[in-house]
Structures are given as C-alpha cells and as structure tokens.
Amino acid sequence: MTNIAEILVALSRANVSFVVIGGIAGIAHGAARVTFDLDIVYGRSKENVERLVLALAPHHPYLRGAPPGLPFMFDVETVLHGLNFTLTTDLGDLDVLGEVIGGGSYENLAVHSREIEAFGVTCRCVTLAKLIELKRAAGRPKDFEAIAELELLRDKASVKSGSQ
C-alpha cells in the first residue's frame, strides 16, 4: 500500500514543484474510487529535479516492474535525460511524470491547479475540470469509468455554487 502522506510530505518539505493528478486528485475532489499509487507532474528545471531526486533518494526509487538487479539510478542526470518514470519506493508506488497526455508539462498544469492542504502540507492538485480532461485524453477503460463519477462531482459542485 502506498503511503501517500509520507510521499507528499517528503516532496513538499524538499520544495519540489509538482501537481497531483490521477486517482489521488480525484479523491481530493471527493471521488470514492480506490487508487494504489500517487501520480504527479513535476517541474523539469534542473533545480527542481535536484530537489525531487533528493526528496526521493532515502526511499530507494526503482523502476516499477523492472527485474530486480537491473542497473537503475534515479539521479539528476537520469531524470533530465528521461521524462516519465513509474517508480516503486519504500513508501509505495509513485508515477513521476514530466508531461502528461492532455495536460502537458508542470507549467501547463500549474495554471489548472489549486493549492490544497493534505497531511499537514500544502501542495498543488489539478482542478476537477482539468482532471476530467486528463482522464478523457488518457483514454483507458479505467479512466472512462472514473469520468462518470468525476462529472457527477463537477455537476454537484456547480449546482451548489449556482453556476450551472
């Protein structure tokens, strides 16, 4: 089971620029779906990548699904030369994404996010409207299933605010 709280605390304490997307973003907006990992889109500046690597190093990030013993170092050079990493860590599964289909980079998504308080830290979470767009763009069956619930949450919120 992924320790979402500890991962968010580690990233936030290291001042990593990131936006939470995926299932955890859905939960932050009121969705009841279960998810087993944390998905983030991170800023690709060298300074931010350095903070990201430093924050995750104590938790031994490794490529999820890779054979044990496969040489892999989650270091600044690797991240700068790569883009998207599906990782397993001592804290659980974490998808570290430099870009995401339907949303682009951190800079593109940051304007479609808001600050939330979670587990004693402040972090950015993609808006409900943008999350629905991301799930549509991904086009996976599990995303289409989630969209129905997310749209209900969106519609309920718009009725509450009187902006149908």
Features:
alpha+beta, two-stranded antiparallel ribbon, 164 residues, 7 helices, 9 strands
Poorly predicted runs are none
For the termini, the CA-CA separation is 38 Å
* Helix run count: 7
Instruction: Write the H/E string, N to C.
Output: HEHEHEHEEEEHEEHH
- Quote the beta fraction: 15-25%
Rounded average pLDDT: 94
Structural class assignment: alpha+beta
Q: What does this molecule look like?
A:
- With 164 residues, the protein is an alpha+beta fold.
- Helices cover 43% and strands 24% of the residues.
- It is built from seven helices and nine strands; from the N terminus they run αβαβαβαββββαββαα.
- It has a seven-stranded mixed sheet with strand order 3-4-5-2-1-9-8. Strands 6-7 form a two-stranded antiparallel sheet.
- It is globular.
In short:
With 164 residues, the chain is of the alpha+beta class. The protein has seven helices and nine strands.
SSE arrangement:
Elements: H1 4-13, E1 18-21, H2 22-28, E2 37-42, H3 46-56, E3 62-63, H4 76-81, E4 84-89, E5 92-97, E6 99-100, E7 104-105, H5 106-110, E8 113-118, E9 121-126, H6 128-138, H7 141-161
Parallel strand pairs: 1-9, 2-5
Antiparallel strand pairs: 1-2, 3-4, 4-5, 6-7, 8-9
